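A quick aside before the break. I want you to see a complete sequence-to-structure record at least once, exactly as it would be stored in a machine-readable document. Don't worry about memorizing anything.
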Amino acid sequence: MVLLILMYALFGLTFIFGSTAMQNASPIFFIALRMLISGGIMLSYLKFRRQSFKINRSDVKLFFLLALVHILIPYVGEFWALQYLTAAKVSLIWSLSPFITAVFAWFMFKERMTVLKFVGMAIGFLGFIPIVMHEGAKEQALTSLFHVSTADIALVIAVISAAFAWSTFKKLLHRGYRALVINGWAMLIGGGYSLILSPFFEPWHPFPVKNWPITIVCLFALVLIGGVICYNLYGFLLKRYTVTLLSFAGGVVPFFTAFFQWIILHQKVSFPFILSVIIISVGLYIFYTEELRQGYIK
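That is the input. The structure line, written in tokens, reads:
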């Protein structure tokens, strides 16, 4: 159980490093560096272990699509939003992911939706209203639509894209590719996308980085925590705990993010955040309980 708590605490910490990085570097360029390094490490590891990571010619388009919806849109959207939103708010909005994934599974894989799952999803979506309607100081400088800032909208698009990406990821798994191969190539290609786009949207004088030492520390931390420690730790914990427990436990990530935000960044947690966390937790509980009853998770 200690390792389980540690893993989600580390996940919470990644939002703090991401927020800090965005005060010192431009988002698209930073994502390019992060993904090129992470993808390179994964594929180099496979090369070192003499394991194949070749892509069939017929699957190349799927890998390029996955890099777009699994890497470029979600990460650039998230890190652009981190320039204006608190780390805790970004972490909380990512809790939308299970509900949106369920909607895609309903339409694309014909998974059965029950009344209780609809109730859980409805409560979960309602839970986002307090935190989305609450604007921080930086958000007020942005344009908004019905009191929802463009940073919130960008982040929601990122979450939707990431949820949709799992359908493509699933197709590649069914075609015999290992998760490490899929992620390695998606990150490498997604990093290439970002590097190509960065000069068109960000100032290069000579690079879109204000503070290299802090940027490198954040980059190293995110690659190490997300790409090495948590990736392997999650696989290890799947052998000891059920997917249900891991899914439920993921709900503590916003709490850890809020705690680290308070301790490290000295930013207070707002009442709308606490209210949203409580409502969303109720929705997730109802939703996952019904998923368990249906046998989709064990």
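Two observations worth writing down. The longest helix spans residues 212-238. Residues 116 and 154 are 29 Å apart (CA to CA). We'll return to this after the break.
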